[in-house]
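Z., the sequence and structure:
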Amino acid sequence: MSTQVATSVPDDSAATRADPEAELAGRRRIVGIALMCGAVAFFASLDACGKTLARAGVDPLVTTFMRYAASVAMISLFINPVRTPGVVKSRRLPLQIARSLLLFASTALNFLALRYLQLAETISIQFAAPLTVALLAGPLLGEWSSRARLTAIGVGFLGVLVIVRPGVGGMHPAALLCVANVVVYAFYAIITRKLAAYDSTATTMFYTGLAGLALMAPLLPWIWTSPASLTHWALLFGVALFGTLGHWLLVMAHARAPANVLAPFIYTQLLWSVTLGFLLFGDVPSRWTVAGAMIVVGSGLYLLAQETIRREARPAA
Protein backbone atom coordinates (compact mmCIF):
# COMPACT_ATOMS: atom_id res chain seq x y z
CA MET A 1 0.00 0.00 0.00
CA SER A 2 2.81 2.39 0.92
CA THR A 3 4.53 1.66 -2.39
CA GLN A 4 1.44 2.59 -4.34
CA VAL A 5 1.13 5.87 -2.49
CA ALA A 6 4.78 6.66 -3.02
CA THR A 7 4.62 6.05 -6.76
CA SER A 8 1.36 7.93 -7.25
CA VAL A 9 2.54 11.17 -5.66
CA PRO A 10 5.24 11.99 -8.24
CA ASP A 11 2.80 11.26 -11.08
CA ASP A 12 0.22 13.64 -9.62
CA SER A 13 2.90 16.26 -9.12
CA ALA A 14 4.02 15.91 -12.70
CA ALA A 15 0.44 16.36 -13.91
CA THR A 16 0.06 19.38 -11.66
CA ARG A 17 3.22 20.89 -13.11
CA ALA A 18 2.13 20.17 -16.67
CA ASP A 19 -1.39 21.57 -16.31
CA PRO A 20 -0.39 25.17 -15.45
CA GLU A 21 1.97 25.19 -18.41
CA ALA A 22 -0.78 23.99 -20.72
CA GLU A 23 -3.21 26.50 -19.26
CA LEU A 24 -0.69 29.31 -19.72
CA ALA A 25 -0.12 28.32 -23.35
CA GLY A 26 -3.88 28.17 -23.88
CA ARG A 27 -4.37 31.60 -22.37
CA ARG A 28 -1.61 33.03 -24.55
CA ARG A 29 -3.35 31.65 -27.63
CA ILE A 30 -6.68 33.12 -26.54
CA VAL A 31 -5.04 36.51 -26.00
CA GLY A 32 -3.38 36.23 -29.40
CA ILE A 33 -6.72 35.47 -31.06
CA ALA A 34 -8.36 38.43 -29.30
CA LEU A 35 -5.55 40.71 -30.46
CA MET A 36 -5.98 39.45 -34.03
CA CYS A 37 -9.72 40.18 -33.94
CA GLY A 38 -9.03 43.70 -32.68
CA ALA A 39 -6.41 44.23 -35.37
CA VAL A 40 -8.75 43.37 -38.25
CA ALA A 41 -11.45 45.67 -36.83
CA PHE A 42 -8.96 48.52 -37.14
CA PHE A 43 -8.02 47.35 -40.64
CA ALA A 44 -11.66 47.48 -41.75
CA SER A 45 -11.86 51.06 -40.47
CA LEU A 46 -8.65 51.86 -42.36
CA ASP A 47 -10.19 50.48 -45.57
CA ALA A 48 -13.32 52.56 -45.06
CA CYS A 49 -11.23 55.72 -44.71
CA GLY A 50 -9.16 54.79 -47.79
CA LYS A 51 -12.21 54.14 -49.94
CA THR A 52 -13.84 57.41 -48.85
CA LEU A 53 -10.70 59.28 -49.87
CA ALA A 54 -10.52 57.46 -53.21
CA ARG A 55 -14.15 58.33 -53.96
CA ALA A 56 -13.33 61.96 -53.15
CA GLY A 57 -10.57 61.97 -55.79
CA VAL A 58 -7.52 61.67 -53.50
CA ASP A 59 -4.74 59.71 -55.21
CA PRO A 60 -4.34 56.28 -53.54
CA LEU A 61 -0.57 56.76 -53.57
CA VAL A 62 -0.98 59.99 -51.58
CA THR A 63 -3.11 58.06 -49.10
CA THR A 64 -0.41 55.39 -48.91
CA PHE A 65 2.30 57.98 -48.26
CA MET A 66 0.28 59.75 -45.58
CA ARG A 67 -0.50 56.43 -43.97
CA TYR A 68 3.22 55.82 -43.49
CA ALA A 69 4.32 59.37 -42.72
CA ALA A 70 1.79 59.83 -39.93
CA SER A 71 2.28 56.28 -38.69
CA VAL A 72 6.06 56.65 -38.43
CA ALA A 73 5.61 60.01 -36.68
CA MET A 74 3.19 58.57 -34.13
CA ILE A 75 5.28 55.49 -33.47
CA SER A 76 8.43 57.59 -33.06
CA LEU A 77 6.80 59.51 -30.20
CA PHE A 78 6.66 56.34 -28.14
CA ILE A 79 9.29 54.09 -29.68
CA ASN A 80 12.64 55.73 -30.33
CA PRO A 81 16.28 55.21 -29.29
CA VAL A 82 15.92 57.73 -26.44
CA ARG A 83 12.84 56.23 -24.79
CA THR A 84 13.68 52.65 -25.76
CA PRO A 85 17.45 52.11 -25.85
CA GLY A 86 18.52 49.46 -28.33
CA VAL A 87 15.23 49.53 -30.25
CA VAL A 88 17.08 50.15 -33.53
CA LYS A 89 19.11 46.97 -33.16
CA SER A 90 17.54 44.07 -34.99
CA ARG A 91 18.85 40.53 -35.03
CA ARG A 92 17.27 40.07 -38.47
CA LEU A 93 17.53 43.48 -40.18
CA PRO A 94 17.03 42.14 -43.75
CA LEU A 95 13.79 40.52 -42.61
CA GLN A 96 12.65 43.77 -41.00
CA ILE A 97 13.28 45.65 -44.25
CA ALA A 98 11.54 42.96 -46.31
CA ARG A 99 8.55 43.03 -43.94
CA SER A 100 8.27 46.79 -44.20
CA LEU A 101 8.42 46.71 -48.00
CA LEU A 102 5.80 43.95 -48.15
CA LEU A 103 3.50 45.98 -45.93
CA PHE A 104 3.93 49.00 -48.19
CA ALA A 105 3.11 46.92 -51.26
CA SER A 106 0.06 45.41 -49.55
CA THR A 107 -1.23 48.83 -48.52
CA ALA A 108 -0.76 50.35 -51.97
CA LEU A 109 -2.47 47.41 -53.70
CA ASN A 110 -5.36 47.60 -51.28
CA PHE A 111 -5.96 51.34 -51.73
CA LEU A 112 -5.77 51.00 -55.50
CA ALA A 113 -8.32 48.17 -55.46
CA LEU A 114 -10.68 50.07 -53.13
CA ARG A 115 -10.96 52.76 -55.77
CA TYR A 116 -13.06 50.35 -57.85
CA LEU A 117 -14.33 47.57 -55.56
CA GLN A 118 -16.63 47.31 -52.56
CA LEU A 119 -15.15 46.83 -49.11
CA ALA A 120 -16.80 43.41 -48.94
CA GLU A 121 -15.36 42.42 -52.33
CA THR A 122 -11.80 43.35 -51.47
CA ILE A 123 -11.81 41.66 -48.08
CA SER A 124 -13.55 38.55 -49.44
CA ILE A 125 -10.73 38.04 -51.93
CA GLN A 126 -8.15 38.82 -49.27
CA PHE A 127 -9.64 36.06 -47.14
CA ALA A 128 -7.39 33.76 -49.16
CA ALA A 129 -4.40 35.26 -47.34
CA PRO A 130 -4.80 33.06 -44.21
CA LEU A 131 -5.10 30.03 -46.45
CA THR A 132 -1.91 31.06 -48.20
CA VAL A 133 -0.24 31.56 -44.82
CA ALA A 134 -1.25 28.05 -43.77
CA LEU A 135 0.13 26.72 -47.05
CA LEU A 136 3.45 28.55 -46.69
CA ALA A 137 3.81 27.90 -42.95
CA GLY A 138 5.15 24.41 -43.70
CA PRO A 139 8.22 25.20 -45.80
CA LEU A 140 8.90 28.56 -44.13
CA LEU A 141 8.00 27.97 -40.46
CA GLY A 142 8.01 24.18 -40.18
CA GLU A 143 4.26 24.18 -39.40
CA TRP A 144 3.26 21.52 -41.93
CA SER A 145 -0.32 20.91 -43.02
CA SER A 146 -1.92 17.49 -43.31
CA ARG A 147 -3.60 16.23 -46.47
CA ALA A 148 -7.00 17.20 -45.07
CA ARG A 149 -5.77 20.72 -44.36
CA LEU A 150 -4.32 21.02 -47.85
CA THR A 151 -7.69 19.95 -49.27
CA ALA A 152 -9.40 22.65 -47.21
CA ILE A 153 -6.93 25.21 -48.51
CA GLY A 154 -7.69 24.14 -52.08
CA VAL A 155 -11.44 24.48 -51.46
CA GLY A 156 -10.81 27.95 -50.06
CA PHE A 157 -9.03 29.00 -53.22
CA LEU A 158 -12.00 27.74 -55.22
CA GLY A 159 -14.09 30.12 -53.14
CA VAL A 160 -11.90 32.98 -54.32
CA LEU A 161 -12.55 31.92 -57.92
CA VAL A 162 -16.28 32.06 -57.21
CA ILE A 163 -15.87 35.66 -56.07
CA VAL A 164 -13.61 36.79 -58.90
CA ARG A 165 -15.24 34.66 -61.66
CA PRO A 166 -12.32 35.07 -64.09
CA GLY A 167 -13.23 35.07 -67.75
CA VAL A 168 -16.99 35.49 -67.25
CA GLY A 169 -17.11 39.26 -66.96
CA GLY A 170 -18.16 39.25 -63.34
CA MET A 171 -15.65 41.19 -61.25
CA HIS A 172 -13.81 44.42 -62.10
CA PRO A 173 -10.21 43.79 -63.29
CA ALA A 174 -9.08 45.58 -60.11
CA ALA A 175 -9.79 42.26 -58.38
CA LEU A 176 -6.39 41.14 -59.66
CA LEU A 177 -4.85 43.75 -57.38
CA CYS A 178 -6.53 41.99 -54.45
CA VAL A 179 -5.19 38.64 -55.62
CA ALA A 180 -1.66 40.08 -55.71
CA ASN A 181 -2.28 41.53 -52.27
CA VAL A 182 -3.14 38.05 -50.98
CA VAL A 183 0.31 36.76 -51.89
CA VAL A 184 2.09 39.84 -50.54
CA TYR A 185 0.21 39.77 -47.25
CA ALA A 186 0.86 36.06 -46.75
CA PHE A 187 4.62 36.62 -46.90
CA TYR A 188 4.23 39.64 -44.62
CA ALA A 189 2.42 37.52 -42.01
CA ILE A 190 5.01 34.75 -42.25
CA ILE A 191 7.90 37.18 -41.74
CA THR A 192 6.05 38.82 -38.82
CA ARG A 193 5.84 35.43 -37.16
CA LYS A 194 9.53 34.68 -37.76
CA LEU A 195 10.61 38.05 -36.39
CA ALA A 196 8.67 37.48 -33.16
CA ALA A 197 11.31 34.90 -32.23
CA TYR A 198 14.22 37.33 -32.70
CA ASP A 199 13.15 40.95 -32.18
CA SER A 200 10.93 42.67 -29.63
CA THR A 201 7.53 44.09 -30.53
CA ALA A 202 8.99 47.59 -30.14
CA THR A 203 11.77 46.91 -32.66
CA THR A 204 9.39 45.42 -35.20
CA MET A 205 6.99 48.37 -34.82
CA PHE A 206 9.89 50.82 -35.19
CA TYR A 207 10.79 49.37 -38.59
CA THR A 208 7.21 48.79 -39.79
CA GLY A 209 6.72 51.96 -41.84
CA LEU A 210 10.28 53.08 -42.53
CA ALA A 211 10.83 51.30 -45.86
CA GLY A 212 7.48 52.46 -47.26
CA LEU A 213 8.19 56.04 -46.22
CA ALA A 214 11.68 55.96 -47.71
CA LEU A 215 10.34 54.48 -50.94
CA MET A 216 7.52 57.01 -51.33
CA ALA A 217 9.35 60.18 -50.30
CA PRO A 218 11.27 60.67 -53.59
CA LEU A 219 8.02 60.20 -55.57
CA LEU A 220 6.02 62.69 -53.53
CA PRO A 221 6.63 65.81 -55.73
CA TRP A 222 5.12 63.96 -58.73
CA ILE A 223 2.04 62.55 -57.02
CA TRP A 224 1.15 65.08 -54.32
CA THR A 225 -2.19 66.86 -54.43
CA SER A 226 -3.23 68.75 -51.32
CA PRO A 227 -6.42 67.42 -49.66
CA ALA A 228 -9.34 69.70 -50.39
CA SER A 229 -10.87 69.87 -46.90
CA LEU A 230 -10.31 69.26 -43.22
CA THR A 231 -12.45 66.14 -43.57
CA HIS A 232 -9.94 64.71 -46.02
CA TRP A 233 -7.09 65.50 -43.64
CA ALA A 234 -9.00 63.81 -40.82
CA LEU A 235 -9.55 60.71 -42.98
CA LEU A 236 -5.84 60.60 -43.85
CA PHE A 237 -5.03 60.78 -40.16
CA GLY A 238 -7.58 58.01 -39.55
CA VAL A 239 -5.83 55.81 -42.11
CA ALA A 240 -2.56 56.23 -40.24
CA LEU A 241 -4.10 55.80 -36.78
CA PHE A 242 -6.09 52.66 -37.62
CA GLY A 243 -3.14 51.16 -39.49
CA THR A 244 -0.75 51.80 -36.60
CA LEU A 245 -3.05 50.35 -33.97
CA GLY A 246 -3.94 47.39 -36.17
CA HIS A 247 -0.37 46.39 -36.88
CA TRP A 248 0.65 46.85 -33.25
CA LEU A 249 -2.01 44.35 -32.24
CA LEU A 250 -0.98 42.08 -35.12
CA VAL A 251 2.64 41.93 -33.98
CA MET A 252 1.61 41.20 -30.38
CA ALA A 253 -0.80 38.49 -31.59
CA HIS A 254 1.91 36.69 -33.56
CA ALA A 255 4.18 36.79 -30.51
CA ARG A 256 1.58 34.79 -28.58
CA ALA A 257 0.20 32.23 -31.06
CA PRO A 258 1.30 30.39 -34.22
CA ALA A 259 0.45 31.92 -37.59
CA ASN A 260 -1.81 29.05 -38.63
CA VAL A 261 -3.87 29.45 -35.43
CA LEU A 262 -4.30 33.21 -35.82
CA ALA A 263 -4.88 33.30 -39.56
CA PRO A 264 -8.54 32.14 -39.66
CA PHE A 265 -9.62 34.93 -37.32
CA ILE A 266 -8.94 37.52 -39.95
CA TYR A 267 -12.39 36.50 -41.23
CA THR A 268 -14.02 38.58 -38.52
CA GLN A 269 -13.11 41.55 -40.70
CA LEU A 270 -15.98 40.54 -43.00
CA LEU A 271 -18.54 41.69 -40.43
CA TRP A 272 -16.91 45.08 -40.14
CA SER A 273 -16.42 45.50 -43.89
CA VAL A 274 -20.01 44.62 -44.79
CA THR A 275 -21.37 46.88 -42.05
CA LEU A 276 -19.17 49.86 -42.90
CA GLY A 277 -19.66 49.35 -46.64
CA PHE A 278 -23.43 49.45 -46.24
CA LEU A 279 -23.54 52.35 -43.76
CA LEU A 280 -21.02 54.57 -45.56
CA PHE A 281 -21.44 53.68 -49.23
CA GLY A 282 -24.73 51.81 -49.49
CA ASP A 283 -22.90 48.74 -50.83
CA VAL A 284 -24.62 45.37 -50.71
CA PRO A 285 -22.43 42.32 -51.51
CA SER A 286 -23.50 40.28 -54.54
CA ARG A 287 -24.61 36.67 -54.15
CA TRP A 288 -21.34 35.56 -55.75
CA THR A 289 -19.31 37.52 -53.22
CA VAL A 290 -21.35 36.10 -50.33
CA ALA A 291 -21.15 32.52 -51.66
CA GLY A 292 -17.41 32.69 -52.31
CA ALA A 293 -16.72 34.33 -48.96
CA MET A 294 -18.66 31.61 -47.14
CA ILE A 295 -16.62 28.93 -48.91
CA VAL A 296 -13.37 30.60 -47.91
CA VAL A 297 -14.57 31.21 -44.35
CA GLY A 298 -15.71 27.59 -44.07
CA SER A 299 -12.28 26.42 -45.20
CA GLY A 300 -10.61 28.63 -42.63
CA LEU A 301 -12.83 27.43 -39.82
CA TYR A 302 -12.11 23.83 -40.81
CA LEU A 303 -8.38 24.56 -40.61
CA LEU A 304 -8.90 26.01 -37.15
CA ALA A 305 -10.87 22.97 -36.03
CA GLN A 306 -8.18 20.62 -37.33
CA GLU A 307 -5.51 22.63 -35.51
CA THR A 308 -7.48 22.40 -32.27
CA ILE A 309 -7.96 18.63 -32.60
CA ARG A 310 -4.28 18.13 -33.43
CA ARG A 311 -3.09 20.07 -30.38
CA GLU A 312 -5.54 18.35 -28.02
CA ALA A 313 -4.44 14.94 -29.31
CA ARG A 314 -0.76 15.74 -28.77
CA PRO A 315 0.56 13.80 -25.75
CA ALA A 316 1.53 15.87 -22.72
CA ALA A 317 5.24 16.38 -22.22
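The CA atoms of residues 166 and 173 lie 9 Å apart. The two ends are 28 Å apart (CA to CA).

Let me know what you think.
H.
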